[in-house]
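Name: Asparagine--tRNA ligase
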Amino acid sequence: MKTTISQVGQHVGQEVTIGAWLGNKRSSGKIAFLQLRDGSGFIQGVVVKSEVGDEIFQKAKGLTQESSVYVTGIVKEDERSPFGFELEVQDLSVISESVDYPITPKEHGTEFLMDHRHLWLRSNRQHAVMKIRNEIIRATYEFFNTNGFVKVDPPILTGSAPEGTSELFHTKYFDEDAYLSQSGQLYMEAAAMALGKVFSFGPTFRAEKSKTRRHLIEFWMIEPEMAFYEFDDNLVVQEEYVSFIIQSVLTNCKLELTRLGRDTSKLEAIQAPFPRVHYDDAIKFLHEKGFSDIAWGDDLGAPHETAIAENYEKPVFITHYPTAIKPFYMQPDPTREDVVLCADLIAPEGYGEIIGGSERINDLQLLKKRLDEHQLDPEAYKWYTELRQYGSVPHSGFGLGLERTVAWISGVEHVRESIPFPRLLNRLYP
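Structure predicted for Asparagine--tRNA ligase:
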């Protein structure tokens, strides 16, 4: 019976055949232990010379790292295995022999591993991170579909930008200028006016020359937008969504979290609601902590976000940033024009901002005024302003950066490990 490693628990005591790659092996004169993987999981195959004969045993001993094989054996329960099962090998055949596999079971430098990212993905650690990423994506669709959202796909090529064009990749669209999208938000607002509650999930691009562990040039965003949702409504959706994906990973990726050595107690503590800190109070707190480099009106940097987040076991909202440092589309606080109804959600453990969101301006004249203040071409945004001309309503939305969220939940230090093929300032290969 042909099966996969993830399904062997359904065949205890039975003979199965698995197509797999050899991750590693160790052997003596009488027994060989094969570390096998097939993409769905990892299992140890035990080859006993007295049971399989000399020909099969020598074939097992001679296997090279990452050779592909068909392995036939009996599934046995094994409490010593993190997976809970092992395979008593009866037969094996080599599909393709691997020669001089470059990533050996020893320490390799980061640049070497990134140059071989196409192969590094095969490792236990990277496999675990990608499985957690997949679970977050699966749970995202479940959360929004269950809560009445409609999936909408905004364009990647755009003629304008939600936050100006200084950090966008420019290209020619025949005889026009175009940009790779830094956010689908403006288009999602249009979709929300048609469909009520919508969300997108797709690639975004930022031409930031940043080398920090939190930044990628190409990354994926989940961007919900909701008609008739005001600022506080928006925060509730965010904290419920983040709580949901955390619980989904804890439930469905226990083995992967264990493999990564993740302290799951920190994740288990994360349940809505999340604390909220007003920007005014954040600045006061930072001054009390000795941060003399920041004044009211400045944007918060990574050290500032980390200092605030260290006071909480859950993610924390920093709300009501100054109007002057935020994009043109954010709704002013009705009691203070110098701040807007926005919030950044800061993950604990030093992972920084994972969500940025706000209530959007719904007044046509105010939006036109903001476009003028930001020196943005009103013709390029004509379609966007028309959303306020034909039945404007209060509406809100946010964007969650998938890679930062994967890094945080997985516990990996750098976002480059949270995406299959990262695009960094100095890396476009492989």
